[in-house]
Amino acid sequence: MKILANFDRKRLLPGALVALFSVVLVACGPAPDSPPQRIVKGLPWQINNFDDGSSEVFGLRLGHTTLEDALQIIGKDSESAIVIDQQNHASLESYISHYKAGPLQGKLILVVDIPASQLQQMIQNLEHGDYMASGARKLLPTDADWDIAKQTPIASISFIPAINLDEDIIVNRFGQAGTQLHSKEVDHFLYPDKGLDIALSEDGKEVLQYIAPRQFHKLSQPLLNNPSFQVANNN
Fold first, then answer.
1. 15, 56, 95, 214: least surrounded by Cβ within 10 Å?
2. How many CB atoms lie within 10 A of CB 25?
3. What value, to the nearest 5°, has the Cα angle with vertex 171 and ends 204 and 27?
């Protein structure tokens, strides 16, 4: 996942933010296993699964909702581009810098489900692009290619909450992970049935990545094959 903006890797008043997050949790109701006290929609842990192996979060159904419809649902204040990382992996993304998930705020990234061959053709239609601070290149699609992209379903979503998370909050709201991976820099909480990977960082912002459960291997397999990670638990 390439993100169209740089994020502050320092934790911002972590004690105060975790306390604030706890207040938000109370406002949003009890943990998933408890009787609901009030209905708040659009929360990061409200994930609906469908029989075809797809899922819906933030009102967007992965593999079904087009980018154009998604931007209508979540708002038009977005930046879209083809992003090519330093490993030459390309994706077409829409970045929303100020997104509200219920009472929670954060940054949202939508990745469009464009075949690699078609994406490469879009790149060839462009002459140059801008370099980002991360070293990735950012290219703006032509008008014709943008029209195609808008009618293409979104493949995955990343949400970067403004409030820092910890393991207790993650387990309380999302349940016990199917697999938890540990490394020196980041832990990953993998939820195959939800199509969700939560990256918990000591020094940086947490990232919640959503994909259709039927395609969860695209998120999990590279992590499971990475020798830097150790399995912390496997329920």
1. 15
2. 17
3. 90
Q: Locate all alpha helices (DSSP H) within the chain, ordered by sequence.
A: 14-28, 67-74, 116-124, 143-150, 167-174, 217-224
Region label for 150, one of left (φ > 0), alpha (ψ between -120 and 50) or beta (otherwise): alpha
Measured CA to CA, the distance from residue 62 to residue 211 in angstroms comes to 7
Question: Rounded to the nearest 5 degrees, what angle is found at the Cα of 186, between the Cα atoms of 182 and 192?
Answer: 65
Give the integer Cα–Cα distance in Å for 193 and 208. 15
Report domain extents, the chain.
14-234
Pick the closest to residue 33 from 138, 137, 174 (CA basis).
174
Lowest mean pLDDT among 93-97, 125-129, 143-147, 219-223: 125-129
| Bridging pattern class, strands 186-191 and 130-131 | unpaired
Which H/E stretch holds residue 55?
strand 55-57
Tens-place pLDDT, residues 72-129: 998 768 888 998 887 888 899 999 999 988 788 999 999 999 999 999 999 888 866 7
d(CA 197, CA 48): 16
Q: Smallest Cα–Cα separation from 70: which of 56, 60, 57, 55?
A: 60
Q: At what angle do helices 143-150 and 116-124 cross, to 10 degrees?
A: 160
Amino acid 205: pLDDT: 87
